[in-house]
């Protein structure tokens, strides 16, 4: 496939969603990056742009940009903002789009909706990012179960951290999913290093 729109979610916050977004942006020609909800500075849009060195026109503005580094529902409430699901629409991008969620799939975005509801509204295939360390099997299988029960297409799992073959095997076996990439700790994040990881992805990716 020459273009694709993907939603990146995670088993938790801080698992490496932004790094995976940067890897996809480094490898997907002409794709744009979109973070629908940003909670707290400096912002993942800025981080991905700095990691990749890509021009500003490859990065789309957030629908909601919140000041506090909290769950979206909590940050919005603190700032007197109501996040409305109807405000989210996929930008018209013909060359592909990398969408990064906030936190994990079950993180609330308002009093009635979760990040899951945003993914369902956008109806995008999902890449799930997980840690490679102890505890990841439970968190990953729970996240996969939620995604599958809600009829969402899961492209695969990306494991971030030192390689752990036992955890990888368990996730693939019990989750009935493919681990499409393992990201070991990177000494230096450069566009070439990111592109190398993109090329190592075990799927028919975007070019």
Can you put this structure into words, describing what you see?
- The structure is a single chain.
- The protein is α/β, with parallel strands linked by helices and 207 residues long.
- The protein has one domain (5-199): P-loop containing nucleotide triphosphate hydrolases (Rossmann fold, 3-Layer(aba) Sandwich), CATH 3.40.50.
- 33% of the residues lie in helices and 21% in strands.
- It contains seven helices and nine strands.
- It has helices at 17-27, 44-52, 72-78, 115-122, 136-149, 165-175, 191-199, and strands at 5-10, 32-34, 37-39, 59-60, 64-66, 97-104, 126-131, 154-160, 179-183.
- The protein has a seven-stranded parallel β-sheet with strand order 4-2-6-1-7-8-9, sandwiched between helices.
- Helix 1 packs across helix 7 (191-199).
- The mean pLDDT is 92.
How would you briefly describe this protein structure?
The chain is of the alpha/beta class and 207 residues long. The chain is built from seven helices and nine strands. The strands form two sheets. It has a seven-stranded parallel beta sheet, with helices on both faces.
SSE blueprint and pairings:
Elements: E1 5-10, H1 17-27, E2 32-34, E3 37-39, H2 44-52, E4 59-60, E5 64-66, H3 72-78, E6 97-104, H4 115-122, E7 126-131, H5 136-149, E8 154-160, H6 165-175, E9 179-183, H7 191-199
Parallel strand pairs: 1-6, 1-7, 2-4, 2-6, 3-5, 7-8, 8-9
CATH architectural grouping: 3-Layer(aba) Sandwich
Q: Helical amount among residues, as a percent range?
A: 25-40%
Radius of gyration equals 16 Å
Compressed to H and E, one letter per element, the order equals: EHEEHEEHEHEHEHEH
In one word, what is the shape? globular
Distance between the termini: 7 Å
* Total count of strands: 9
Mean pLDDT: 92
Quickly count the helices: 7
User: How would you classify the helix and strand content by structural class?
Assistant: alpha/beta
Question: Which CATH top level class fits?
Answer: Alpha Beta
Q: How much of the residues is beta strand, in percent?
A: 15-25%
